[in-house]
Amino acid sequence: MKRLDAVAAACPRRLYGHGRPTPAQVLADLAEEAALGAEPDRYGEGGLVAEVEEEVRALLGAPAALLLPSGTMAQQIALRVHADARGHRGVAMHRTSHPILHEEGALPALHRLAPVAVGDPTSLVTSAELLAVPDLAAVLVELPQRETGGQLMSFDELSSLSRQCSASGIALHLDGARLWECGPAYGRPLAEVVALADSTYVSLYKGLAGPAGAVLVGSTQLIDTARIWRRRHGGSLPWLWPFALGARRGLRLHLPRMAEYVAHAQALATAIATVAEVVAPPVTPLFHVLLPGEPEVVEEVMLDVAEESGVFLGGADPGPRPGVALREVYAGAAALEISPDEVADLFGRVFARLG
């Protein structure tokens, strides 16, 4: 076992997400949720899966919804459907988008799509950058942009992009892996955000703490076609109800607390900024902290402090410039147990040892 994993398992508290449940805890949570009532689906049809699809559809004000095993599958399918309908293969997105960084070139390899990476890797993508790409079938916007520290395109800019896409016959797809966390920043129902797009994917495990899964929403025609592609992708498993069960639990327990998580993230960031560099003031529960040093060295120091304090601070990734390491903080339910003063002290100890 890597030291990172060993320290994570040993620390009783965690500065990230909703905790690190064991398999036994996950099963216990699902059993508790199932006791409230749940009917199995059959290959993704009916039962609890249909119930959760309808709940997400209604929350997001969309015409139709489809549950899939992963967000990667959901987005590939949505973009393929948009491209086939429009006769173009180009898809513009920020250069740190998930299909660019984490999918092994799946869009061109599996779907003959041509993803075009635009924008500064450290900044928000703009409408102008996305729409400067010729022969587009679709543009993808991630809400918020994870790799740039949780920055979020404004509602006004998103509205403008939506109008321009519509006028040009280009589909607008929202990578809403963390869309649930964006409600407080936008100050409006998420349905108003989703209404700007031709399709949106939301995660069932990131902010909601389910075991896995995603929901794709869009027009009835898009979802009908996506249902066929789900089977082509091997996503129509005999049972999808465990994903739906975790999602229903997350929608009930975590979605109502998003404003609380965002407020705590802002308090943590303010405290950490007294001892280290915060990339941008958080507008969602996610933000990035920069620390001086090579990532391998910084991570060892963070693990030392974690072992001493019992608070797992996470590892360290390469930062936006040489000699700087990056740590992502996500203020979910687990982080509520840790006060801003304590977090400032912990990062202060890390910073002092790096100095």
Word description of this protein:
The protein has 355 residues and is an alpha/beta fold. It has two domains: 3-18 and 256-354, Aspartate Aminotransferase, domain 1; 37-253, Type I PLP-dependent aspartate aminotransferase-like (Major domain) (Aspartate Aminotransferase, domain 2, 3-Layer(aba) Sandwich). Helix content is 45%, strand content 17%. It has helices at 3-10, 23-34, 47-60, 71-86, 98-101, 106-111, 127-131, 155-168, 183-186, 190-194, 220-232, 241-253, 258-272, 295-309, 340-354, and strands at 13-14, 64-68, 90-94, 114-118, 136-142, 171-176, 199-203, 214-218, 277-278, 286-292, 311-312, 317-318, 324-330. The strands form three sheets. A seven-stranded mixed β-sheet has the order 2-8-7-6-5-3-4, with helices on both faces. Helix 8 links the parallel strand 5 and strand 6 (171-176). Helix 1 runs parallel beside helix 14 (295-309), helix 3 (47-60) packs across helix 12 (241-253) and helix 13 runs parallel beside helix 15. It is globular. It starts with a helix and ends with a helix.
